[in-house]
Design a protein that fits this description.
- The chain folds into 2 domains: 64 residues; 199 residues, Cyclophilin-like (Cyclophilin), CATH 2.40.100.10.
- It has 6 helices and 10 strands.
- The protein has an 8-stranded antiparallel beta sheet with strand order 3-4-6-5-7-2-1-10. Strands 8-9 form a two-stranded antiparallel ribbon.
- A hairpin with a 3-residue loop joins strand 3 and strand 4.
- The longest helix has 37 residues.
Length: 296
């Protein structure tokens, strides 16, 4: 028997005893009647409280079984993970954007941007490089690059890896080639096979293997191309590699998302600096990176 039921039985028993002791209220003195009434009130009050308690227990048990609570759930706590930017998007749009792209045909990659197109302008300690971007072919990489630029992520970062007749590489805030993070603080997938090639001047994401893109990028500098690696390409693309140079062996493994249309002489100047283990002896910095509308 529950403690509540025992309490009710005890109260009833007590009530009977009091009643038997006061069979004839008329024979009681005024003081006795007052005490008897007071005792009855206590008994009734205790019984009422017991009923309320039982009802509360029944409701609670029912709520637990049905999984329903009367208090709304607390809002999810904000993530404490560090982000490379102060205002990184809360819902990464790249997961959807990367599924929607347009493949370039021919040599559109090498055309100048149209008036009003957004371009990236990289001001370095050697001069300024202007880059056309391809958001329809590489939406993820372009969104990442533009977002990091807008947040000032690249400002003050060095070109940590420079190899003449190949490329210049930057985008690591640690300046050693192992650091950096994407706009979303997580790696994203490659975007290849979309009509963009590693021609001289191509802007591409550096990675440490398939689908490991973050913040690091490189610009192809090579003025020649290994013709033994052109056999699988169309005649148009192969001939352009022969004409302007590039790194065709990178095609299919690195996401090309832009093309330098001004400042290739600056890329050449950076590639020619003195290096030790491919790192410039004197820092070559990105002073300021901006996104601008091309005026034509």
């Amino acid at each position: 028997m529950s403690s509540v039921s025992k309490k009710i039985k005890s109260n009833v028993s007590t009530n009977k005893k009091l009643a038997s002791k006061s069979k004839d209220r008329k024979n009681m003195t005024k003081g006795q009647r007052i005490w008897a009434d007071y005792g009855n009130l206590l008994i009734l009050g205790g019984g009422f409280l017991a009923i309320v308690l039982i009802a509360a227990i029944i409701i609670t048990i029912g709520s637990i079984k049905s999984g329903v609570t009367t208090t709304p759930p607390a809002a999810p706590a904000a993530s404490s993970a560090a982000a490379p930017s102060e205002e990184a998007p809360t819902t990464p749009s790249y997961k959807e954007a990367s599924k929607d792209f347009k493949v370039l045909t021919g040599l559109e990659q090498l055309e100048k941007p149209k008036a009003g197109e957004e371009i990236a302008v990289i001001e370095t300690s050697k001069g300024t490089i202007k880059l056309r971007l391809f958001p329809e072919q590489a939406p993820t990489a372009v969104e990442n690059f533009k977002g990091l630029i807008s947040n000032g992520y690249y400002d003050g970062i060095i070109f940590h890896r420079v190899i003449p007749d190949f490329m210049i590489q930057g985008g690591d805030p640690d300046g050693i080639g192992t650091g950096g993070a994407s706009l979303w603080n997580e790696q994203f997938e490659n975007e290849v096979g979309r009509g963009l090639y590693n021609f001289r001047g191509a802007l591409a994401m550096a990675n440490s293997g398939p689908n490991t893109n973050g913040s690091q990028f490189f610009i192809v500098q090579s003025k020649t191309a290994d013709e033994s690696q052109l056999a699988s390409l169309s005649e148009t693309i192969a001939n352009k590699y022969k004409e302007i140079g590039g790194a065709p062996w990178l095609d299919g493994s690195y996401s090309v998302f832009g093309q330098a249309f001004e400042g290739l002489d600056i890329v050449d100047a950076i590639s020619a600096v003195e290096t030790v283990s491919d790192k410039p002896v004197e820092d070559i910095k990105i002073i300021k990176a901006t996104i601008e509308k091309y005026k034509g």
